[in-house]
Design goal:
The protein is an alpha+beta fold. The chain has helices at 5-17, 54-61, 74-87, 181-185, 189-193, and strands spanning 27-37, 43-52, 95-99, 102-104, 110-117, 122-135, 139-144, 151-155, 161-164, 171-175, 207-212. It is 21% helix and 36% strand. The strands form two sheets. Strands 1, 2, 5, 6, 8 and 9 form a six-stranded mixed beta sheet that branches. Strands 4-3-7-11-10 form a five-stranded antiparallel beta sheet, with no helix packed on it. The protein starts with a helix and ends with a strand.
């Protein structure tokens, strides 16, 4: 059975409710990202690499057919990648950009696929979000977060961000959110159930990337 991103989230919640914890978040993602530059110095899009926690990954792959038990090839995971990338659209792909203070729109994701690490039993989603129009800006800001805080995003400690093909003068900085687990545990599950993708509550847990080019 191919499960959408939303359905996997629901299953994760059920699992946690039957255990000792029920507070948000329910899914953890470790990520690194790249800004892709054209030869004229404009940014054409953002390339993400998201590694999901093992519990989420087990739910996602449960029931998938594979030639080797417990091992999934990129081809075998292709239908799952397609369904889940499509379902992420409702959440704006958890990626929100502004160029010189103006909101920037993305096209549909391209070059997406899933990898599976059998030793760690984790899935990693790779995809590129192209801008509808390439961006040239003195300051480009990209926030990565889940508005409903179902998912907790954290940049890797090593090589969290790269500017691919950027002019030498362009530099980036990252602001990581403070640990939100204590605050989230104080709130009832009914509060989180009332949130939707259009809300802004999760912005306080955003990973913020800023790129400045003279």
């Amino acid at each position: 059975m191919i499960r959408s991103f939303r359905n996997i989230l629901i299953l994760s919640i059920v699992c946690l409710w039957t255990g000792t914890a029920s507070a948000h978040p329910h899914v953890w993602v470790t990520m690194n990202s790249e800004f892709i530059y054209a030869t004229d110095g404009s940014v054409t899009g953002v390339r993400h690499t998201w590694t999901f926690d093992d519990t989420f990954s087990v739910f996602a792959t449960q029931g998938l057919e594979s030639k080797q038990r417990g091992v999934f090839t990129r081809e075998e995971l292709a239908p799952l990648a397609d369904v889940n990338v499509t379902s992420l659209k409702e959440y704006g792909f958890f990626t929100f950009a502004k160029a010189d203070g103006k909101k920037v729109q993305f096209n549909e994701p391209v070059d997406y696929y899933l990898d599976y690490d059998a030793k760690r039993t984790v899935l990693t989603l790779h995809f590129t979000l192209p801008f509808k129009t390439p961006v040239k800006a003195k300051q480009l800001n990209v926030d990565i977060y889940d508005p409903t805080y179902f998912v907790d995003f954290a940049f890797t400690e090593k090589n969290p961000m790269a500017l691919v093909g950027a002019p030498a003068a362009c530099k980036f900085s990252i602001v990581r959110p403070e640990d939100a687990s204590v605050q989230a545990q104080r709130l009832p599950e009914t509060f989180f159930n009332s949130l939707d993708a259009s809300g802004g509550w999760g912005t306080q847990f955003a990973n913020k990337v800023s790129v400045k080019c003279p």
